[in-house]
Amino acid sequence: MSSKNALTESKQKPLRVLCITPRMPTSEKPGSMAPALRQIESLRRLGVEVVVQDMRGIPILKYGPAIPRMWANLSKVDLIHAHFGYCGWIARMQWKRPVVLSFMGDDLLGTPVDNGSLTLFSRFMVHCNRLLARRIDQVIVKSREMANVISPTVCHIIPNGVDLDLFRPIVKSDAQCKLGLDPTKSYLLFPGDPSNPRKGYQLAKAATEETQRLTGLPIEILTLWGRQPDEVPWCMNACEAMWMTSLIEGSPNVVKEAMACNLSVVGVPVGDVAELLAGVQGYFVCERNAVQLARAMTEVLQAKMDVKGRDALVNLGLSLEQVALRIRNVYARTLASSGRPGRHNLEDNLSLPNEYEGNATTESNIAAVEGP
Question: Mind listing the pLDDT tens digit for each residue in 162-180?
């Protein structure tokens, strides 16, 4: 075969990836995997062929059938990308294809109860996932905190990207009208499940009550839990600001989505929130204290400042397209290091264009984090 024909074949052969994920969102069960679904679609737009195997079925019992389903797809793909620790265990039940594993948050940070301590089972799973990370070809984490957990295992720090077409500023009155909200009230967004201790709803509630006392405004909390993914941008634009009071997070997607909408965020230093919001006008990070949070929120409500979240997000390299390029770059490294580069058109991915290089909290360069 001539070199010209070989080049043509290389360009015609797409990279094929099997994504093993938690249950993908549906209209009946929106769930929390909408960012992963958008990530998959962004990779497809780059020419990556993605086969999705999501974890459906009865809890615990669904894991058994997942393994033969994976094996049935192996001949169709070049590598596996598992999202979440338990999906990584399934992906590593074979050695025919290299594995990329994205840890999502509590799979490395644990699951807290009301007092902030971790459950015994989640501590056990964190230990197991640290061991798993050593046996994966390439590991992706969402924050420096997560990278520290698996140190000295080499990993990529790549937070999820944001769809800047979906998450954009919308006129507040239009958003409130669409959602049927009372225009005489001030709404503060709470992004998590109020019944989940990890999300810190009681702190947000106490801070809201204190904010109402300080401002004298009629304030109401609007929750995102249970809403369809396409409703989220409308909810964000209908609110004055958003709370982030979680006990544990990796790199909370909802904070980046709020930034894309230029929605102010008042929160605690959890996950990479402090790094994301550092020096950004209209955003505040406080201690885990209802009074301090309320004072910051009062400033947001009374100052009517020009919010600069969207510009900051783009400068951090966290658009959906920018992050997709980073992930495709990880796929290229995975195939190269596994000795299975194949004839994929990936030569242009082995180094990122300058405009897609992030800073210390969003880099896709391989980073070995020093242990304690």
Answer: 999 999 999 999 999 999 9
165: DSSP letter? T
Within 13 Å of residue 188, how many CA atoms lie on the same side as its CB?
29
Confidence at 371, pLDDT banded by 50, 70, 90 = very low
Asked if residue 278 lies in contact with residue 324, where contact means CB atoms within 8 angstroms, the answer is no
Tokens 């996950």: give the residue: 271
How many Å apart are CA 173 and CA 176, to the nearest integer? 5
How confident is the model at residue 370, as a pLDDT?
32
In DSSP terms, which residues pair with 242 in a beta bridge? 189, 265
What would the DSSP string read from start to end of 256-295?
HHHHHTT-EEEE-S-TTHHHHHTT-TTEEE--S-HHHHHH
Burial class (CB in 10 A: 0-12, 13-18, 19+), 241: buried
Take residue 20 and report the two structure tokens written for it. Answer: 């093993």
According to DSSP, the β-strands at 138-141 and 99-102 are parallel
Residue 60 one-letter amino acid:
I
Tokens of 216: 């004298």
Residue 85 buriedness (CB in 10 A; 0-12 / 13-18 / 19+): buried
> What's the CA gap between 346 and 137, in Å, rounded?
18
State the pLDDT at residue 304.
Answer: 82
Structure tokens at 314: 């783009």
Integer angstrom CA distances of residue 14 from 6, 80, 194, 319: 14, 15, 43, 23
CA distance 116 to 292: 19
Using CA atoms, how far apart are residues 241 and 208, in angstroms rounded to an integer? 11
User: In terms of C-beta density within 10 A (0-12 exposed, 13-18 middle, 19 or more buried), how is residue 354 classed?
Assistant: exposed
pTM listed for this prediction: 0.83
The two tokens of residue 28 are: 């009946």
Are the beta carbons of 110 and 119 closer than 8 angstroms?
Answer: yes
> Is pLDDT at 3 greater than 70 in this prediction?
no
pLDDT at position 112 is: 84
